[in-house]
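Take a protein:
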Amino acid sequence: MITAIAPGSYDPVTNGHIDVITRAAGIFDRVVVGVVRDPHHKSTMFTVDARVGFLRDAPAGIENVEVDVFSQLVVDFARKWNAKAIVKGLRVISDFEWEFQMNQLNRTLAPDVETVYVMASPSVSFVSSSGVKEIATFGGKVDELVPEGVAKRFAELFPQGRPGTPENPQE
């Protein structure tokens, strides 16, 4: 059995994530979706339990997908599951730059674990968790961008949206 892990913060899971996970499940015997408990490079909007719940609900019907939480090096998480590969989704060039750096570090620590990149399908190549969160907090509709459970949760959290306009991070 060839196992792959698909690590990420999944804050929240998007249809882009589901696309990559579903396609990875068609390649590998088992895919373990690893939810980072407390990411160091960003703060999360949703608790780890909520993120895990969204993921468990989203890829319904995919028998060879499991969800687990981790708070160690990704290569140690891969070893825990005896994984041969780390699956990462790529949308844009900036994703590649970050993932290339992570790949080189991971290969140094675990040369026996390959990183496999899955290009996002065109229909979801523009979807990011941060973009979805911004749209939802200002009352925008995200139903087509995230699984149903995530969309419902956003509707509960931000029924009217925040007043004002989104801030441009470039300003």
